[in-house]
Every structure is written in C-alpha cells, then in structure tokens.
Amino acid sequence: MNEKDAVTSRRKIILSGIQPTGTFTLGNYLGAVKNWRHLQEEYDCYYFVADLHALTVYHDPAARRKASRAAFALLLACGLDPEQSLVFIQSHVPAHAQMGWMLSCLSPFGDLSRMTQFKDKSAKHPEDINAGLFTYPALMAGDILLYQADYVPVGADQTQHLEFTRNVAARFNHVYGETFRLPEGYFPKAGARVMSLQEPTAKMSKSDENAKATIYILDDEKTILKKFKSAVTDSEAEIAFREGKDGINNLMTIYSAVTGKSLDEITAEFAGKGYGDFKTAVGTVVADELRPIRENYARLMEDKSYLDAEIAKGAERAAHIAERTLKKTMRKMGLC
Ligand code: AMP
Ligand code: TRP
C-alpha cells in the first residue's frame, strides 16, 4: 500500500468526553457509553473524562479527585478497552488547556454569549458566573480538534458546541492555513434517550433531586427493581408505544435498548400482561445488564496500582498524539 492509500483507508476517528460529575445514570449508559463501546470495533476511539470542564462549577477538591478516578474506572467497567481505545483524563494532558487558550482567541464573544448551556448554567448559578463557564466551548473545541476527530458522538445538548467547534476550526484554517479537520456529529441509530422514571417527560439526569427518578449505573439489583416498580405510568393497561404514554414509552425504550428487541416485539411479548409484570421484566434486564459493570468497577477500584497505571498510560499516549496538532497549531500561529 502506498502512502496515499494508507491515508485514505485510515480508520475514522471518534472522540467523546464525559464530565465526572456524579455517578453515571442509565441514561448516560444507554444514550452514550454503551454505544462508545460498540464503536471501538470500527473506529479509532478516544474517550476521556472531562475534568477541566467540570471545574466551571465548584466542587470540593478531594471529591473531585475521587470523582475523576471513579469516572475513569467506570468507563473501563462499561467495556471501553484501554488496549483498543485511548481512554484518559483530560487535565493529565496539558495540550487541552494550551489549545483551549489559543482557540479562545478565535472565539467571538457574541457566539459564546449565545450558547444555551452558558445561559442555562449562569441562570442556575448566578453567584458564580466565571470566565471558564463562558469560554467552555473553546476548550471543548480544543479537545476535539487536537485529535483531528472525524465524528463526535454527543447528545442533543452538545450539538451547539459542536457547531461552534466547526466554526472555530474553519476560521482558524482560513486565517492561519489548513490545520484542522472539521468534525461531524455522530448520532447512532441505537442511541436511546432515557427519561426520568418519576416524570417521564423530563430527561433522566444525574442531578435529579428525586432519587427514585434515576437509575444509577452502580445501583444494586434490589434498588433497580424497586425504582422500576415505582415508575410512573398511566391508568390504561396496555403495553404499547404511543403518544401520551410517556412512562410506558420510556420503559419500552429502555427494554429495547438493553435487549435489542423492537417495540413491536415487546408489545407482542407483553400482550395481555399487566404493568407490574412489565416493570419487573424491565428491572430484571437492566439489573442483569448492569451487574457485570458493577462487579468490574468494584474490582478496578480495589486494584489501585492497575488503575493508576492505566490512567498514566492513557495520559501518556494521548499527550503523544495531541502534541502533533498542538505543535502544528503553535507553528501556524507564530509561537514556535
Ligand atoms: P451528561 O451527563 O449531561 O454530562 O452527558 C454525558 C453523555 O450522556 C452525553 O452524551 C449525553 O447526551 C448522554 N446522556 C445524558 N443523559 C442522558 C439520557 N437521559 N438519555 C440519553 N443520553 C443521555
Ligand atoms: N461538554 C460535554 C458535556 O458536558 C463534555 C465534553 C467535553 C465533550 N469535551 C468534549 C464531549 C469533547 C465531546 C467532545 O457533555
């Protein structure tokens, strides 16, 4: 194979990050991380714990340190293979902060002001509207562009940041010369949007105050079954996916995402059965799916030296790859 063929037939690059804020939910797993696992077969995958992004909201330092390690362990426990993919913690690779600064100098104030997440978060924490919260999209653009990612799997809430990234990349290429590949969003067919078990019109979220609304990925079997048992449904008695049946729709979505069965198959499977039976069935498949993750996680958290070694290895490999684009960017900007 000549060099040109090698370049054109290269595997495409997938990159995504997740903030280490709170334990992952079933929504994070079914909507994101489970798909990340499958993508490893087909793509070169880079996945990281976005701890620099989490700095924009105050956390106790000890809790933060623990949360980043735990998030890293959870990614491995969910099946991300550190031999096959690059899994790392963002702040351990200094190029992210360096790139973030350079790109913030090409980030228009007006564009940053229009970011929905900035408006939402600053409305939520009016006492702490810091500059990091404002320039967050420039940091995120750096994360993506450093690795010349082709595709970025993100939820709907991040598509605005991805568009911002493309704009910054295009502006940089225009001003300083061709440097960055413009990334595209990746929206998997199987990506489930999981809703709250108590208020099924709202997204299942890490920060829900009602503990019964959210399945955490480390919940034990008993807790999972109990939460599904008390899931809000409707007053009919038909397991079918249609408008107005938000609770049942959500349970069907979850059951489908875990088992791979279609909605029609599920309707047939539960024809004539009551909601109680259905809830138990959903709880059981979810508990079965999450059990090995919980066990892997416990094993990883006990093996401190293995985890430390994987964290260090991930950072070293990521730094090596990031360095290439960082140096190129610095050269183009006249910094070296
Ligand atoms: P977050 O927890 O908001 O930092 O999101 C991390 C990743 O999980 C993003 O790709 C989100 O789109 C995804 N995600 C978060 N909550 C859900 C949910 N309830 N359903 C599906 N995907 C979700
Ligand atoms: N901002 C993303 C979130 O809150 C996390 C993130 C940071 C990210 N950098 C990224 C996602 C780069 C994809 C690519 O969910």
Automatic annotation (TrEMBL):
Motif 'KMSKS' region location, chain numbering: 203-207
GO biological process: tryptophanyl-tRNA aminoacylation
EC class of the enzyme, as a word: ligase
Family that this chain belongs to: Belongs to the class-I aminoacyl-tRNA synthetase family.
Native organism taxonomy: Bacteria, Bacillati, Bacillota, Negativicutes, Selenomonadales
InterPro entries linked to this entry: aa-tRNA-synth_I_CS, aa-tRNA-synth_Ic, Rossmann-like_a/b/a_fold, Trp-tRNA-ligase, Trp-tRNA-ligase_bac-type, Trp-tRNA_synthetase
Residues bound to ATP: Q19, P20, T21, G27, N28, G155, A156, D157, V194, K203, M204, S205, K206, S207
The EC number(s) this enzyme carries: 6.1.1.2
CDD domains: TrpRS_core (cd00806)
Motif 'HIGH' region: where in chain: 20-28
HAMAP family: Trp_tRNA_synth_B (MF_00140_B)
Reactions accelerated catalytically: tRNA(Trp) + L-tryptophan + ATP = L-tryptophyl-tRNA(Trp) + AMP + diphosphate + H(+)
Subcellular location: Cytoplasm
Name this protein carries in UniProt: Tryptophan--tRNA ligase
UniProt xrefs under Pfam families: tRNA-synt_1b
Gene: trpS
Keyword ATP-binding applies: yes
Residues bound to L-tryptophan: D143
Assembly, per entry: Homodimer.
Organism: Selenomonas infelix ATCC 43532
Xref: NCBIfam families: trpS (TIGR00233)
Highest taxon in the source lineage: Bacteria
